[in-house]
């Protein structure tokens, strides 16, 4: 591990630390990070992939291929009038 001591600096009404470019490059970080507190440490991580990020495009591709037939078929509710709610 590369340990480095740095100072906490005032940035406007907040405080922060500068992260050396070699650290950012090593992790492939560019504009965003995820930050968390674990025990007595502040942990910075690469952002995780957004869940369902590409689902809309994938759904369009499935529909365009014609492979989007209903698996269960139509689920009608014609007999729902007899149900008591």
Helix content range: 10-25%
CATH architectural label: Ribbon
Q: What is the count of DSSP helices, taking H or I runs of 4+ residues? A: 2
Q: Major sheet: size, sense and barrel closure?
A: 2 strands, antiparallel
Mean pLDDT: 85
Say how many strands there are: 4
Strand order within the widest beta sheet: 1-2
Strand content: 15-25%
Domain SpoVT-AbrB: 6-49
Protein name: SpoVT-AbrB domain-containing protein
InterPro entries: SpoVT-AbrB_dom, SpoVT-AbrB_sf
Keywords: DNA-binding
Report a brief summary of the structure.
The chain is an alpha+beta fold and 85 residues long. Helix content is 21%, strand content 19%. The longest helix has 11 residues, at 55-65.
Could you explain the architecture of this structure?
- Residues 6-49 form the SpoVT-AbrB domain.
- This is SpoVT-AbrB domain-containing protein.
- Pfam families: MazE_antitoxin.
- Keywords: DNA-binding.
- InterPro entries: SpoVT-AbrB_dom (IPR007159), SpoVT-AbrB_sf (IPR037914).
- The longest helix is centred in the C-terminal third of the chain and has 11 residues, at 55-65.
- The radius of gyration is 25 Å and the shape is elongated.
- The protein has a single domain (1-67), classed as Ribbon (Pemi-like Protein 1, Chain: D).
- Helices cover 21% and strands 19% of the residues.
- By secondary structure, it is α+β, with helices and mostly antiparallel strands.
- The protein is built from 2 helices and 4 strands.
- Strands 1-2 form a two-stranded antiparallel ribbon.
